[in-house]
Each structure stands twice: as structure tokens, then as C-alpha cells.
């Protein structure tokens, strides 16, 4: 009975007795979720436009952040470094399209998926070889990102909000809004949606696949850079981030591979779910549940809704 | 010229269905086995055996395991590292609880524990497919890895939190532990690997293998042919995890001689094995060997080969280079030959068969 | 045709009172708001060739999918060999003796022709996993015995030369033939063929017709086929059912159907 009590009753008692802690946990989960959502967003963009499940998105985040910090450490002014990094992401997108995607057109999905594994290793090796493998500190101040914290006195306690987290949330929302507008109302956006639907059909009406792919990978690269800055500002920049970036996978599962709103909602569910789970139930099993809880949440969810939250119902045809 | 099957007629279906129908192949296999069992133990240095051959064999076994799941059944797994861990810990517990029983029995038995855990994590494959399933296997990877660290019973409450391999004898000769010579460990490992390779090859060439490949190629049609999907997939998970489990037990007991889960059975190990399978060739047993040879020997070759050629390398640089080369090679092989080294091998053989004519 | 094959599947003597193998009664199937089939009823007699025709999107493939348990109709009954069934899986249909081919070839592309056809024997193979570990003794004997049967099918379909070619590399016409072989390997009581002649040239069509008729006559296998080539349908089928927009609009012998005004309207179009 004790065990049942500590699973089903006690955590809720704690939530009730210390609502400020609950709010704090929710907020932390929210911010973590936003960052997961940003990585997932990069995945979704690429998956929609090229049908490639880009495993390297997580590493692109690290690579972008590392390039930015590495350039700054070599004496390049912060904003110039930012511009150069954007340029690097463009070159990367172009190179990927040229060297990887183009020769692999029409191969089965799994081959392309595997190719992004190769890309992952290449980027890890390159990043470490050029900038060194030590964790670095993000140049948040130099980029005029806010620092410090706001203490909110609510619910009979104090909830601490880091300003950088608030900034991250705002930037993420602005970026998602801008991307949706871009997709909906520009010529390139329309072409992107056409390519997402069918490569062949898009080609036949004169859309250049190669051009679209470069654009999409570049956008994903910029999203990766922004994610990298935000994430780097919260912890530090190192390749340890790649394990965290894997959590974008359960996020995608929840949201469906092709849905931008799905990526956001999925990110928030995973972020909040794993923080709450760790804080209230984690101690029961010895803690550090964050390493696997996200996957199990996604797994349980999948058993009931295999197509994800926003995915369309799969009707199998033969 | 030397590789011609002209004059070798098959007069029965049994002869036609043999795994090596061509005489030259059978001779080649015999030569390789002779080298592996006789020449290497006799003439190979400890360095060759400990740093090259033993890792190669362990990884080959794990790669065969993953190839059964990914290459033959078409289910991508990112949890093979964790299943190797299950085998290692099972073997460790078994041999500490029943020290009297022969260690080789326990190494093989540990595979069954891995198989059972594999089936549990394979259950979602009924409802979910493709990339979605990789998440289920990632759940296995991270959950199991966490369990290895959090459940001290598994490592007998050692203060180090690691497996400490005890000494076990086989016919009076130490097989595991600090006193076992590399040659003994190598021979034990080689025997296990050969036995399991033979069994894997039997499985994939018969009804079981056909049902796996049918599920991989077109699951709906497979069901209409009378193949039950869930049992076929679960069997594949079980067999695959069995192989990974035995490979994990071999890794701890015959190679590392002790170690800790977060080092030995982490997500990177899962990736490494997946790469071996891809580069070697999906759906090919011999490909698993090629892939394992390639990827397990590459770092060693870089680390020791380049300095020998007069190019000085610091440890970290070698590691970065290793990553870069690995990444480039994966891309290269996928672009040039998506079916991996095994296909190149086949093409080569075909060319030899018709040489000097192009076809 | 070879003797062993005939023995293993004796020809059913055509009884004077035609025996019904499969009955479809008032089947209705919809996806969301779209009605694929509404209130369709027909039957298939033992040892006949039954054609299902109709314009594109008439629900022909959906009908086959219902028969072999891939779709589950919302209303109506399907009775096979006198047994009514509820929500069965495709596996159960295979077990009861229903085999089929597909509109878009659904072969196992990575496997050889021989392996594909051997897969059709799965339900007839009973040796356990244990024996397969060794690939000797009983498991091997069983493999060889079924290999013999498959070789006869390969003979029959004249595809000996591509026995060991992965089917992914074969041209379309041959793939269709291999698919028929795979279905035949199941020794089915009812064979469903979904557009077996789509995309073939005249010669290939003639070959395929010959195979279908041979299968029907020599093994007494009941065949239901969907086909767009009216010449073929009228030539080889005993009875024809016509679907349009999920409704049955005609049912009868080829001549009756040809004369039916609603069928003519459906195919030629009519001003409303």
C-alpha cells in the first residue's frame, strides 16, 4: 500500500501543498520543451521538403553554436561571427545538397536516413577538429541576450524565471510564426509545399528540387543556429548536447513528422512531462529518469495513436 | 580463371540449396577457418589477437544480430548496445550465483535473457513501423542503460559500479579473468562466433529467414501469404537480441575483462553496430563480418598505423580523424553502393567468374 | 501439367447443382464519409471464373480487400465455404485458402523468384524453429519437398530462367507472373486476381489468359478477377458482376451483362 500511496497520492499532495514549486517545475519543463520543439522544427522542415529523416539536425545545432563561439574566440566580433556562421550554414546546406542528396535521389528512405548518420559523424569530427572538443561558453552577453532572473512572488512562494528563458520562448514563437507565414504566402513557400507532396509532380511543373533543398536545409541550419544559441546560453556548448538532441525524436513522434504545430505541442508535452515526472516521481526509482522518460512517454502514446497527435489517420492501401 | 564453376553440376535440390554451392567457395572457407583456428593462435602476436581479432569477432557477432533485425526483417534498432549490456550483466549474475557451471554455458545462456528483454521492447512493433520504431528501441537503450547504473544488484554492489570479471576455468585453463591468455580467450570466442554464424546462416536460408524478408519487403503481402506479422517480428527481435546479448557477454568476459555500462553499452555502441551493418551490407551475414572488420579495425589502424608511417598523431586528433573518416566512408558507401561491402564482394566474385570476359 | 500437382489438388467434379464457395451479402464499406461499397451482394460458385468489372473507383479492389480480410465492412456478411466470418485478419483468410495478387505488384522485391514462390508455401510448412537452427534432417527434407512443388509451378509459368533473380530487377510482365506463381504456391481454393493483365502487351496478355484458364481447368481453382480489358473478361469468365460507384448494377453471364443498358451507360456515359 505504501508504494501505491507514494505513486498515486503523495506526488499530488506535494503539488497541492507547494504550488509555487509546481509552477516552477512547469516553467522549466516549458522552456525545455521549447528547445526540443526548435530541434524538432528543423527535422519537420527537412522531412516535409525532402522526405529525409535528418538525424543530423541535433548535430547541426551543436555545430552551428560551436562555429559561432569558436569564431568569437578567434577574435571575430560577435555579430560578424553570427553573420559568418549563417554563411557557413548556407555553405553546409549547399554542400549537403550537392554531395549527399543529389546522388541519393530516389533511394529508399532508410538509405537517406543512414546517410544523415554519416553526416552526423562527419560534422562531429569536423567540429571537434576545428574548434576543439572542450565545452565552450555561449557568447550570450555579446549578442545582447538578457541575463539574470525575475523573481515572481505568487502562490505564497517565489518562482524564478531566467530572462534568457523568456527570451528563448519569445524568439521561438516569433520564428515559428515567421516560418508559417513564409510557407503560406511566398512563392518559395508554395514550392516547398509542392515538393513535400510529390517530388515528381513538383519537378514536372518546373520547380527546381535542388534549389528547394538548398533553401530548406539552409533554413533548418538557421533554426539550428538559433536553437544552439539559446541552448548554449542555458548550459554550455559541447557535443554532449547531441544526446539531448535525440529527444527531438519522441517529440516528432508525438507531433507527427510533418506538422509544425505538432512539433511545438509535442515539444511542450515532452518537456513538461519529463520535468514533472522527474521532480515528483523520479525519486521513487532513484532519480535521473530524464534520460529515458521522454522515450517512454512517446512509446506509450504511440501504442494508442500510431499516427501522432496531428498526423492524419493512416489508411493502408494495397 | 581459378574461380569457375564449369563442370560442377548439381544433381539434387539439396546440392542446389547448399549455402556454398561452388567448390572454390568451400575451399576458401576451409582456408579461412584454418588460418583463424591454427595460424593466428600459433603465429599471431598478443597485440594482433587482443587489439584486432577479439574486437573484430565480438563486433561481428553483434553485427550479425543487428543484421537479422535490421537487414533481414527491416526493423531499425538503436538499442543493440543495451541488449549487449543485458547479456553481459546476465552472464555476470549467473556466473557469480552459480560459479560451478562452465562459463561458456553461461555466456550462451545470457543470450536468452537478452532475447526475453528484446521481445518486450519489440512488442510495440505490432502497432508502429519504420522510424517510429526507432524511438521504441531508443527507449530500450536509455532505460536499460539507466537500469544498469541504478540497480546495484546487477553489478554485485561493487564500489566501482562496474563488472569485475572473475576467473573461470575450462579444462583447468583460465578462460576469463586476469590470468586468461589472449590466445585462450580468442579460441573460445572464435568457436562461439563460428557456431552462431552457422546457426544464423541456417535460419536466414530457410522458412524463418524467408518470412523475415517477406515482412521486410512488403508486410501486407506477407500477411496475406499466411505469415503472422507479430510472431515473425518478435522472433526476429528475440534472435537478434540473443546474438547481441552473447556478443555483450563475450565483450565483457573475453575482451574487456570488466567495465561499466555507461562506457561499454551506451548509445554510441548502438550506432557503431548499426554502421557496421550498413557498411557491411543489410541482409547479409558475410556483410556483417566485412562491416565489423572495417569499423572495428579502422580506429586501431589509424592509431597505430599512421605513427608507424611517420605521421605523428595525438590521441584526440586521431579520434577526430576517426569520426571524419567514418562519416565520409558511410556517405561514400551509401552513394557508391547502398548495398554495402557484401554487394561489392558479390560483384567482384561475378567478375572473377566470367573473367576475362566482361559478362 | 505434372502428375504430383494434380494429385495434391484433385480436380473438383463440376456438380450439376453449382455449389457456392463464397457469398457476399449486403456489404457496405466506408472510409470516413466516403462510401466505397454500398449494399453489394453476389456469390462465387465453385470452380468458376468470376469477373468483377466496373469503371475506375467503382470499389472493385475494396471488394477484394473485404474478401480477404484486409478491410472490414461496416455492414453485411461474407460467407466462405459455408462459414460466416466476423472481423478476420488477412492471415485467417490465407489459412482458409484465399490467395491473391495485387494491382500494383506486391512482391518481396529483395528476394529471388524462387524465394518469393517458396514464401507462398509458408502455411504448408510445419517444421519448428528448432529444426531450422540446423537446416538438416526434417527441416531440410521439408524445404526440398516444397522446393519440388515450387519448381513445378515455375515450370508451369515458364519462368525457369529467372529462378534465382531478385524480383526487383525483373520487368513488369514477369513480375506479374511471379506474383501469380506465389499465389498458386498456396494451393488456394479461391484465387483473387487484381488486374492481372494491367500494363501488358497483347502477347503477355495471351500468356496470362492461358495460365489463368489452365489453373482453373487443371486444379479446379475458383478464380475471381478484376480486369479492365473487356475482350479478356468476356472471353474467359463464366459470370461477371459489374460495380459502379460502390453499387452493383449488373450480374450474370458475359452476354447478359453486355446487353444490360445500365452497364452500357456506365461505360459509355449517359446524359442525365
Please, could you describe this protein's structure?
The complex is a heterotrimer of chains A (318), B (359) and C (272). Chain A contains 14 helices and 2 strands, in the order ααααααββαααααααα. With 318 residues, chain A is mainly alpha-helical. In chain A, strands 1-2 form a two-stranded antiparallel ribbon. In chain A, α3 crosses α8, α3 (19-50) crosses α12 and α5 (78-101) packs across α10 (209-234). Chain A starts with a helix and ends in a 14-residue tail after the last helix. The relative contact order of chain A is 0.18. By secondary structure, chain B is mainly alpha-helical. Chain B has a domain at 45-266. Chain B has a two-stranded antiparallel ribbon with strand order 1-4. In chain B, strands 2-3 form a two-stranded antiparallel ribbon. In chain B, a hairpin with a 2-residue loop joins β2 and β3. In chain B, α4 packs parallel to α6 (130-150) and α13 (285-308) crosses α15. Chain C is of the alpha/beta class and 272 residues long. Chain C has 2 domains: 1-97 and 189-272, 3-Layer(aba) Sandwich (Rossmann fold), CATH 3.40.50; 112-187, no CATH class. In chain C, α8 (202-219) links the parallel β7 (190-194) and β8. The radius of gyration of chain C is 19 Å and the shape is globular. The model of chain C is unreliable at 1-15 (pLDDT under 50). The chains are: A mainly alpha (318), B mainly alpha (359), C alpha/beta (272). Chain A binds chain B through residues 53, 99-100, 103-104, 107-111, 113-115, 117-126, 128-129, 133, 243, 246, 249-250, 253, 257, 285-286, 288-289, 291-292, 295-296, 298-299, 302-303, 306, 316, 318, and chain B through 76, 124, 127-128, 130-132, 134-136, 138-139, 142-143, 145-146, 150, 220-221, 267, 271, 274-275, 278, 316-317, 319-331, 334-335, 338.
Amino acid at each position: 500500500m505504501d508504494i501505491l500511496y507514494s505513486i498515486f497520492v503523495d506526488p499530488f499532495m506535494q503539488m497541492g501543498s507547494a504550488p509555487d514549486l509546481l509552477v516552477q517545475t512547469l516553467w522549466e519543463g516549458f522552456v525545455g520543451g521549447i528547445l526540443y520543439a526548435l530541434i524538432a522544427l528543423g527535422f519537420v522542415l527537412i522531412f516535409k521538403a525532402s522526405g529525409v529523416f535528418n538525424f543530423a539536425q541535433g548535430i547541426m545545432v551543436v555545430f552551428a553554436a560551436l562555429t559561432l563561439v569558436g569564431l568569437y574566440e578567434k577574435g571575430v566580433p560577435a555579430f560578424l561571427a553570427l553573420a559568418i556562421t549563417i554563411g557557413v550554414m548556407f555553405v553546409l546546406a549547399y554542400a549537403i545538397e550537392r554531395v549527399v542528396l543529389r546522388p541519393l535521389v530516389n533511394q529508399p528512405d532508410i538509405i537517406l536516413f543512414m546517410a544523415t548518420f554519416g553526416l552526423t559523424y562527419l560534422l562531429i569530427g569536423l567540429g571537434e577538429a576545428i574548434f576543439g572538443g572542450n565545452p565552450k561558453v555561449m557568447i550570450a552577453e555579446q549578442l545582447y541576450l538578457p541575463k539574470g532572473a525575475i523573481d515572481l512572488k505568487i502562490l505564497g512562494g517565489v518562482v524564478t524565471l531566467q530572462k534568457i528563458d523568456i527570451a528563448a520562448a519569445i524568439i521561438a514563437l516569433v520564428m515559428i510564426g515567421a516560418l508559417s507565414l513564409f510557407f503560406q504566402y511566398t512563392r518559395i513557400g508554395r514550392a516547398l509545399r509542392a515538393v513535400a507532396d510529390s517530388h515528381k509532380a513538383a519537378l514536372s511543373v518546373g520547380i527546381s528540387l535542388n534549389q528547394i533543398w538548398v533553401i530548406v536545409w539552409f533554413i533548418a541550419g538557421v533554426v539550428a543556429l538559433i536553437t544552439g544559441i539559446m541552448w548554449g546560453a542555458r548550459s554550455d556548448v559541447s557535443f554532449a548536447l547531441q544526446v539531448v538532441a535525440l529527444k527531438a525524436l519522441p517529440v516528432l513522434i508525438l507531433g507527427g513528422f510533418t506538422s509544425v504545430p505538432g512539433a511545438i505541442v509535442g515539444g511542450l508535452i515532452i518537456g513538461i512531462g519529463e520535468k514533472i515526472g522527474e521532480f515528483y516521481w523520479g525519486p521513487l526509482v532513484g532519480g535521473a529518469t530524464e534520460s529515458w522518460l521522454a522515450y517512454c512517454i512517446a512509446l506509450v502514446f504511440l501504442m494508442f495513436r500510431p499516427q501522432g497527435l496531428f498526423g492524419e489517420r493512416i489508411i493502408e492501401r494495397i | 580463371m581459378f574461380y569457375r564453376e564449369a563442370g560442377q553440376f548439381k544433381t539434387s535440390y539439396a546440392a542446389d540449396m547448399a549455402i556454398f554451392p561452388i567448390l572454390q567457395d568451400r575451399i576458401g572457407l576451409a582456408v579461412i577457418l584454418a588460418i583463424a583456428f591454427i595460424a593466428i593462435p600459433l603465429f599471431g602476436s598478443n597485440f594482433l589477437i587482443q587489439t584486432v581479432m577479439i574486437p573484430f569477432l565480438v563486433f561481428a557477432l553483434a553485427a550479425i544480430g543487428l543484421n537479422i533485425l535490421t537487414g533481414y526483417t527491416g526493423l531499425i534498432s538503436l538499442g543493440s548496445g543495451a541488449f549487449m549490456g543485458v547479456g553481459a550483466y546476465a552472464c555476470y549474475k549467473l556466473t557469480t550465483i552459480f560459479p560451478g557451471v562452465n562459463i561458456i554455458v553461461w555466456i550462451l545462456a545470457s543470450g536468452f535473457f537478452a532475447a526475453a528483454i528484446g521481445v518486450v521492447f519489440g512488442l510495440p512493433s505490432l502497432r508502429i513501423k519504420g522510424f517510429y520504431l526507432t524511438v521504441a528501441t531508443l527507449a530500450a537503450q536509455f532505460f536499460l542503460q539507466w537500469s544498469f547504473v541504478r540497480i546495484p544488484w546487477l553489478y554485485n554492489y561493487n564500489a566501482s559500479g562496474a563488472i569485475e570479471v572473475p576467473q573461470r576455468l575450462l579444462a583447468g585453463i583460465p578462460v576469463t579473468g586476469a590470468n586468461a591468455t589472449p590466445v585462450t580467450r580468442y579460441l573460445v570466442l572464435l568457436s562461439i562466433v563460428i557456431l552462431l554464424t552457422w546457426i544464423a546462416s541456417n535460419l536466414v536460408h530457410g522458412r524463418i529467414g524467408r518470412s523475415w524478408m517477406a515482412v521486410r519487403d512488403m508486410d501486407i503481402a506477407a500477411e496475406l501469404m499466411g505469415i503472422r506479422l507479430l510472431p515473425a517480428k518478435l522472433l526476429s527481435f528475440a534472435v537478434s537480441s540473443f546474438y547481441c546479448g552473447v556478443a555483450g557477454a563475450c565483450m565483457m568476459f573475453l575482451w574487456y575483462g570488466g567495465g561499466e555500462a555507461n562506457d561499454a553499452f551506451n548509445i554510441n555502441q548502438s550506432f557503431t553496430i548499426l554502421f557496421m551493418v550498413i557498411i557491411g551490407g543489410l541482409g547479409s551475414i558475410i556483410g556483417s563480418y566485412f562491416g565489423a572488420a572495417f569499423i572495428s579495425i579502422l580506429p586501431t589502424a589509424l592509431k597505430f598505423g599512421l605513427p608507424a608511417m611517420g605521421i605523428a598523431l595525438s590521441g584526440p586528433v586521431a579520434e577526430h580523424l576517426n569520426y571524419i573518416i567514418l562519416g565520409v566512408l558511410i556517405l561514400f558507401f551509401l552513394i557508391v553502393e547502398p548495398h554495402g561491402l557484401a554487394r561489392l564482394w558479390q560483384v567482384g566474385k561475378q567478375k572473377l567468374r566470367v573473367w576475362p570476359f566482361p559478362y | 501439367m505434372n502428375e504430383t500437382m494434380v494429385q495434391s489438388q484433385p480436380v473438383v467434379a463440376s456438380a450439376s447443382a453449382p455449389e457456392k464457395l463464397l457469398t457476399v451479402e449486403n456489404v457496405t464499406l466506408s472510409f470516413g464519409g466516403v462510401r466505397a461499397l454500398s449494399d453489394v451482394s453476389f456469390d462465387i460458385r465453385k470452380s468458376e471464373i468470376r469477373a468483377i468489372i466496373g469503371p475506375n473507383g467503382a470499389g472493385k479492389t475494396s471488394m477484394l480487400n473485404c474478401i480477404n480480410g484486409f478491410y472490414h465492412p461496416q455492414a453485411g456478411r461474407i460467407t466462405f465455404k459455408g462459414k460466416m466470418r466476423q472481423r478476420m485478419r488477412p492471415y485467417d483468410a490465407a489459412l482458409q485458402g484465399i490467395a491473391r495478387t495485387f494491382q500494383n505488384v506486391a512482391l518481396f522485391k529483395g528476394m529471388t523468384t524462387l524465394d518469393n514462390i517458396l514464401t507462398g508455401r509458408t502455411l504448408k510448412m510445419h517444421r519448428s524453429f528448432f529444426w531450422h537452427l540446423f537446416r538438416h534432417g526434417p527441416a531440410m527434407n521439408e524445404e526440398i519437398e516444397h522446393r519440388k512443388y515450387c519448381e513445378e509451378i515455375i515450370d508451369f509459368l515458364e519462368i525457369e530462367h529467372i529462378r534465382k533473380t531478385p524480383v526487383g530487377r525483373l520487368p513488369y510482365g514477369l513480375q506479374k507472373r511471379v506474383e501469380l506463381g506465389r499465389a498458386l504456391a498456396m494451393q488456394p481454393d479461391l484465387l483473387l486476381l487484381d488486374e492481372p493483365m494491367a500494363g501488358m502487351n497483347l502477347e503477355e496478355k495471351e500468356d496470362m489468359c492461358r495460365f489463368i484458364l489452365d489453373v482453373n481447368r487443371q486444379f479446379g481453382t475458383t478464380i475471381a478477377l478484376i480486369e479492365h480489358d473487356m475482350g479478356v473478361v468476356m472471353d474467359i469468365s463464366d459470370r461477371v458482376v459489374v460495380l459502379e460507384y460502390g453499387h452493383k448494377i449488373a450480374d450474370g453471364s458475359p452476354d447478359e451483362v453486355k446487353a444490360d443498358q445500365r452497364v452500357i451507360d456506365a461505360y459509355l456515359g449517359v446524359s442525365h
